[in-house]
Design a protein that fits this description.
Blueprint: E1 4-11, H1 27-38, E2 42-49, H2 50-53, E3 60-66, E4 69-73, H3 82-88, H4 90-93, E5 97-104, E6 109-116, E7 119-127, E8 131-137, H5 144-147, H6 162-173, E9 193-199
Antiparallel strand pairs: 1-4, 1-5, 2-9, 3-4, 3-9, 5-6, 6-7, 7-8
Length: 204
């Protein structure tokens, strides 16, 4: 499967381990968020393991609404520019904090953004084909080895591999990786389930 993900955390404060209390998911609020994203009434399609939920089928939205924050994954989050994703979902975000990550290993592309309220804290997007598309804000400490040249890849068009970078974003803010070193802080993707929804009129 490689590293494919389009996921966002939205809340008045984002927890360090957002998948820790999924038993507190509010199903009706989750359904409402999915309906707002799809622009229509939705039908539940069951819970999906996290390793598939991070990049659901094109007509599927995975949402877990928890006390204080929401977890959302849908392919419509995936834009070359994090700023485009923020604008598209601004009504849903409603001035809350956001942590966003998207990447696709078939294209070696990764996109990462953090907003505190309406203020940009960090935005990065890059691919070997398009170069560095956005790079705003102060680096987080986990980024330092990348920008210092310690994670360089021989004969590669960028200073480091976007997928390596994207997986470190996941480790830092989401508590898991899709590829790379798994440590004791990483959750087991097969033990985490997210509710999924599709537009009510869609059929398989």
């Amino acid at each position: 499967m490689g590293s494919k993900i389009a996921m966002m955390l939205i809340g008045h404060s984002i927890p360090d381990r957002p998948f820790e209390n999924l038993e507190d998911t509010d199903f009706e609020k989750s359904r409402d968020i999915a309906s707002r994203i799809l622009g229509d009434a939705v039908s539940p399609t069951g819970d999906i393991m996290l390793d598939f939920a991070v990049w659901p089928q094109p007509n599927i939205v995975c949402v877990a609404s928890l006390p204080g924050y929401d977890i959302i994954s849908t392919r419509s989050l995936a834009h070359d520019l994090p700023s485009e994703t923020y604008r598209q979902f601004s009504n849903l975000i409603d001035g809350r904090d956001v942590v966003y990550v998207a990447m696709h290993s078939m294209e070696d592309w990764a996109s990462f953004g953090i907003w505190r309220g309406k203020s940009v804290r960090r935005m990065v997007s890059m691919s070997p084909r398009l170069g560095i598309l956005e790079n705003f804000g102060r680096h987080f400490s986990f980024e330092n080895t990348f920008w210092a040249g310690e994670r360089s890849v021989p004969d590669y068009s960028l200073e480091f591999h976007p997928i390596d970078f994207g997986n470190e974003v996941l480790r830092e803010f989401f508590g898991f990786v899709l590829e790379g070193r798994v440590d004791e802080q990483c959750i087991d993707l097969e033990e985490v389930l997210l509710p999924s929804f599709r537009a009510a009129e869609d059929t398989y």
